[in-house]
Write a structure and sequence with these properties.
The complex is a heterodimer.
Chain A: H1 6-17, H2 26-37, H3 42-52, H4 56-65, E1 77-82, H5 85-89, H6 92-103, E2 116-121, E3 133-135, E4 138-140, H7 145-157, H8 198-201
Parallel strand pairs in A: 1-2
Antiparallel strand pairs in A: 1-3, 3-4
Chain B: H1 36-41, H2 46-52, H3 56-66, H4 78-82, E1 93-98, H5 108-114, H6 116-130, E2 134-139, H7 144-159, E3 175-180, H8 190-197, E4 222-226, H9 227-231, H10 233-245, E5 255-262, E6 268-273, H11 279-284, E7 298-302, H12 322-327, E8 336-341, H13 346-360, H14 366-383, H15 389-402, H16 433-447, H17 449-453, H18 469-475
Parallel strand pairs in B: 1-2, 1-4, 2-3, 5-8
Antiparallel strand pairs in B: 5-6, 7-8
Helix pairs in contact in B: 2-6, 2-10, 3-6, 3-10, 5-6, 5-7, 13-14, 13-16, 14-15, 14-16, 15-16
The chains are: A alpha+beta, B alpha/beta.
């Protein structure tokens, strides 16, 4: 079950086709697996290995390097509270204590009902809007303890379902290169690609 | 169909204040700035058309003449970088570094969210000028909105014929592939970015001898450019190098985006004139941050992202110019200023940064993997009130193993040094993550040692037990 389903395999093949070498698709496919199951399973690792032509150990090695991939189930909502400098200066520590108190769990764990996981995060690139919080990688800016209460209540009541997809889904819009419009992947060793691109070799303007 | 009348964007107040020249943020005032419709209505893809009407080598020269400095941190001119590819070796790739995660930095995400077409156009111009056959746009994993906006923009641009085969009926044929990361700071380093793009753990490659321009993605010549660098190209191609160099100074032309955060009245992201705007303008100027938050005074600030050694009020009048700031012992890095007022607990502030780098170390080089964690643990001990005076020496000792020799002191006169130690320093690691873990510790300890001493218990200086016979004999006298 935890292998990629048929729809996702088709999607995976489309993604792999864009890269000169299949292994480059490892991270996008891990995201796909996480989107399907909410976390990364051993079966998914094996399946991705088959798809990109790598051993499961290689895929696992890549997977465990990156923070966003969770090898254990996490809540439907992952709340990341940034604690790096700008946010820390603007009161991120207090915010984290408040959230821990509100949820009754420590950072790094999940509520007993499996709905919310709370995590300490590093810089989220929203330093001027500190303190910054992400829910499934959707931003909340200049968050106060009251905002955290409101956010958690709204998540529990399901009011934010339209805006925030369940954990695993990052971007809801995918790139699709329409048939016939794309150039296709340029592999490093294809004979046609080892010569100068056509717009370079003429020495003329490309639009002439 | 949306109305083509602008409404202001509620975040990043800097964009609407003042009448400074705008190169990369000109569309930010429109609510729908990310759509193809708005982009075309505001001069979009004109730079690409201008480029395609000239031979590729000409376009390359134009960019070289404009000296577009890399905005990712190192400040290497983009046109020169393109020229470093070995002649005759093809295919060449373009990798766009959108893995913005340096603490304090906040500009590439805005450029991708607010104006993705400008970035796409910049990528196409770079591919044309430097003969790059395929482009990979690497966006940080945690930036969901940026990924959605760029994906939508790419789909629109493909449908309209701006990307793909024979772009706008010309000979240029390039694909742009959206790739997203999964949360690793070190991947912002260009060789680690390439490793990650090849599907591996994002660990930096050893360089020199081979830089990505010679041996990069799949062993081929690869240009890695920052998002903001590429976003400059459409404007540059429309207005020309002369107009570009007329803004800013000779060594730092054009504009650049700077995020000012922390204890200021109006934190924000600003597009400023390169090289002439001073830190005082930025922190106190009415069109920028408007001063330190009410009733407080400036204590220290980080001038160029978490990796940069800190500055104190003495350096406020330095302009935002790479060489001058480098000579003063710090760097501009990725254009991020973090401001601390007098209420800041300095050891704790240093801890937040050091914890970041210790956490983000990829583990390839021992001094960073072990040293970063040591620095974090010692600092945490000091902040918790359990430190001793020996811990302060230990911090320097650990730092010495990451950056041997002199480390820049941003306030050299204040701490009694006669000459500033220029940036960069020596390092025992492949990339800058290791030294970055030490930079905040060193700055805090050198500039504000009294605050550390107030937190630690004094113990006698450590005495070593002699091990050799000779020293044992000497010690026994």
């Amino acid at each position: 079950m935890a292998r990629l389903n048929d729809d996702n395999v088709r999607l995976a093949q489309e993604i792999i086709g864009r890269y000169p070498k299949p292994r480059s698709a490892t991270i996008p496919l891990l995201h796909l697996a996480q989107e399907q199951d909410g976390h990364i399973t051993n079966d998914a690792i094996r399946h991705i290995g088959e798809l990109v032509g790598a051993t499961s150990a290689e895929v696992l090695g890549t997977c465990t390097f990156y923070e966003m991939f969770k090898m254990e189930p996490v809540g439907k909502y992952l709340i990341n509270i940034c604690g790096t400098m700008s946010c820390a200066l603007m009161g991120a520590d207090d915010l984290m204590h408040h959230a821990e108190h509100k949820l009754g769990i420590k950072a790094g764990s999940t509520t007993p009902d499996g709905l919310i996981t709370l995590e300490h995060a590093e810089c989220q690139a929203a330093c001027t809007e500190a303190p910054s919080v992400q829910v499934n990688y959707r931003y909340r800016f200049r968050v106060t303890p009251d905002d955290i209460d409101q956010l958690i209540d709204d998540l529990r009541a399901g009011k934010l379902d339209a805006e925030i997809p369940p954990h695993g889904t990052v971007a809801r819009v995918r790139q699709h290169i329409p048939a016939g419009k794309g150039v296709g992947a340029v592999p490093p060793d294809a004979p046609i690609a080892t010569t100068e691109p056509v717009w370079m070799s003429s020495g003329q303007a490309a639009s002439s | 169909m949306s109305e083509l009348t602008g409404t202001t964007y509620q975040w990043a107040p800097g964009f609407i204040a003042g009448d400074r020249p705008k190169i990369v943020t000109s569309r930010f005032e429109y609510e729908d700035s990310y759509t193809l419709e708005r982009y075309l209505a505001t001069g979009g893809y004109e730079g690409l058309k201008a480029a395609l009407a000239r031979p590729a080598a000409d376009v390359h020269t134009e960019v070289k003449n404009a000296t577009v400095l890399g905005r990712g941190g190192a400040g290497f001119p983009a046109g020169t970088k393109w020229g470093l590819t070995p002649p005759g070796k093809f295919p060449r790739y373009l990798v766009v570094n959108g893995d913005e995660s340096e603490p304090g930095t906040y500009k590439d995400r805005l450029l991708m969210e607010r104006d993705p077409h400008q970035l796409i156009e910049g990528c196409l111009i770079a591919c044309y000028a430097a003969g790059l056959s395929q482009c990979f746009l690497y966006i940080r994993g945690e930036m969901a909105l940026a990924q959605e906006r760029v994906a939508t923009a790419l789909n629109e641009a493909y449908a309209a014929g701006y990307i793909g085969n024979n772009i706008l009926g010309s000979k240029l044929s390039v694909d742009i592939v959206l790739h997203w990361g999964a949360g690793a700071y070190v991947v912002g380093e260009e060789t680690a970015l390439i490793e990650s793009l090849e599907g591996n753990r994002g660990m930096p490659r050893l360089k020199p001898p081979f830089f990505p321009a010679a041996i990069g993605l799949y062993g081929q010549p690869t240009i890695v450019n920052n998002v903001e660098t590429l976003a400059n190209l459409p404007w540059l191609l429309v207005h020309g190098a002369a107009a570009y160099t007329a803004i800013g100074t000779e060594t730092s032309p054009g504009t650049r985006m700077v995020a000012v955060s922390g204890h200021v009245r109006r934190p924000g992201v600003f597009e400023i004139v390169n090289g002439t705007t001073t830190f005082r303008d930025l922190l106190y100027g009415d069109e920028f941050c408007g001063g330190i938050r009410d009733g407080h005074t400036l204590k220290a600030f980080v001038p160029g992202g978490g990796s940069a050694p800190w500055f104190v009020p003495d350096q406020l009048d330095l302009p935002f110019e790479g060489r001058l700031v480098g000579a003063a012992g710090s760097m501009l890095g990725s254009g991020a200023i973090m401001v601390m007022d007098e209420t800041t607990d300095i050891p704790k502030a240093a801890l937040t940064l050091t914890r970041f780098y210790a956490h983000e170390s990829c583990g390839k080089c021992v001094p960073c993997r072990e040293g970063g964690t040591w620095l974090e643990r010692i600092l945490a001990r000091i902040c918790a009130g359990n430190g001793t005076t020996a811990d302060l020496d230990q911090l320097f000792e650990v730092g010495e193993s990451i950056c041997p020799g002199n480390f820049p002191h941003p306030s050299s006169e204040r701490v009694g040094l006669t000459t500033a130690v220029p940036f960069p320093y020596k390092m025992t690691t492949i990339c800058f993550v290791g030294p970055s873990a030490y930079a905040p510790v060193n700055s805090a300890l050198v500039l504000f040692r009294d605050e550390f001493e107030a937190k630690v218990t004094a113990v006698p200086t450590r005495t070593l037990i002699p091990v050799s016979a000779a020293s044992a004999a000497g010690g026994g006298q």
